[in-house]
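Subject: for your reference before the review

Hello V.,

The reviewers asked for a structural picture of the protein, and I figured it would be easier to keep everything in one thread rather than splitting it across files. Below is the amino acid sequence we used in the manuscript, unchanged from the supplementary table.
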Amino acid sequence: MIAAIAPSYDLNNRVHSLWRDQAWRRAAVKAADVQAGQDVLDVACGTGDLTQALARRTQAATVTGLDFTRGMLDIAEIKRGRDAALARIRYIEGDAMALPLPDASFDALTIAFGIRNVQDPARALAEFCRVLRPGGRLVILEFHRPRNPIVRWFNNVYAGHIMPWTATLLARDRSGAYRYLPKSVGSFMDAEQLRAQAQRTGFHDATVRPLTMGICWLHRAIKPA
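And here is what came back from the structure prediction:
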């Protein structure tokens, strides 16, 4: 399903976030606080937007993008091209619940709009904790239902009725991806529940804050030293 929308994924992200998606990713890069010489992993990297932002905006030694869907990674590789600024990136195929990576191998880990599509989020969070070094930062971007009732009503109409129709047309999609994706937001944990789950998994100092009136939320947590 996700592979079917890969070619139009970036365009739909821009149009249907009203071009806010890039600002959300910049906020995630800042929250990851990647220092010179550190290693960073971007899980569920999709077509590589956040992976590339991490490579361009930090002095990380290595940036690894991992995704479950080969079709998304193919687009990410095309987008990288021969850009020297992106030479530190490597893309690998893998499952967030069973990362094909050694323990304590990254200083920061990001995941943007992917955790709600994982079959067992608690298992994925445990994997994130495993591959992070002590003191490593976990940063999650995710959609949750806005708390303000007016914004929530607008978002329900837009994401539940308008966006699935227009995104499906734009992608020429028959897989049902853009009917599934907004529904997955309503059935997923809310922001506080996800924050608490990170704490239960072993992360400390888990925080969450709303972006763009609570349409998108930024989670940050630390692996204990």
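For the response letter, the relevant points are probably these. Residues 149-171 form the longest helix (23 residues). Residues 44 and 114 are 6 Å apart (CA to CA).

Happy to draft the paragraph if you're swamped.

O.
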